[in-house]
Amino acid sequence: MTKKLYYDSERIECEATVLASEKTEDGYDILLDATVIYPEGGGQLSDTGRIADACVSHARESNGEIWHRTDRTLPVGATVHVAFDPEPRLDHTQQHTGEHILSGLAKTLFGAVNVGFHMAEDYATIDLDLPLNEEQLCLLETEANRAVQRNVQTETRIVSGAELDAIPLRKRAKGLTGEDIRIVWCGGVDSCTCCGTHCARSGEVGAIKITAHMNYKGGTRLWFACGMRAVADAQKNALLADKLARRFSTKPENVLAAVVKQGDELAAAKRELRMRTEALLAYRAAGLMQSAEPVCGTKLVVHAEDGLNAQELKSFAEKLCGEERVVAVLFSHVGDTVYYQLSRAAGVPFSMREACAALNAMTGGKGGGRDDAAQGSAKAQTGFAELLAQFEGYLKKWMRG
To answer: What would be the CATH architecture of the domain defined by 90-246?
Structure first.
């Protein structure tokens, strides 16, 4: 078994003997008799570091042995110098210790149990089994940072399975037996069995920031950041608030009100635009109906009106087909796309689904629908007016049988 020296928070390097070196697809797996490099586990990321002149990108534990993924082989039996990269280790340790503090306080304050923890290189999450609102999460964040500021020493203790049952803990891993069960007390607010690395004192976490949250499986998933991750998040949000304040010519603390006001104004403008668009479409429909050419007792309207979206085209067609026997084929050019809507009035026997299939073939477009209405779109192309006239001729011939 590999001697695990990474639990000593003051130890950053060691000497070790190479026990094995195995070739892998992307490097080598090196087994040592001792290491300060923490292997991935318990939700915590692996350390990176160096073994002699070999770079370590990952470490894993298997049956008590720590295997190190390196970029080169090392001679078995050699004595080597081992060191972890301090910045990633500090970052991972801060996130892990912060998770303990948040989880312990969530249980104490609200009775919420941590049912999941995940740490990535750029984010960390905790899943709680109870839904928490913004006020509760704000209190949780505040109390977590108070625990950080109290700078309480982290305590660890190795116990046996028999001793474990008599120790009150927030959480204990299932199936723990034997003589080497590790218990950790963090920040004066949490205690549980844990195999990860932790800050020597809670103050080393620096700061804890809950960056986002959502309802998840009947509980709460929260994203959090500790240490320099929390600093980076605060800087990002401050920069965003400053840019928005400049955009709205207001102070950062007034940005929310300015955004809400503009949103309300935009919503009102959209309602007004929809009303005016509907009125315009009704007017255009009346004019088109007056000039529409009857084909075997059914009026045919083939018309292009640029700038209308798919929903507006549908509304336009409904106005045309509302009262008389009509087949309406409407086009709208928006950017690089041509949208089309094909509709018929009640009692008209022609299938718009079949007509749309023919139009798709002519334009290289995609679409479909029902016999009474179909829609599609195609990439804009030159000669659109000629294509329109060609399709109108096709429709006339088709409607005449």
So the answer is: 2-Layer Sandwich (3.30)
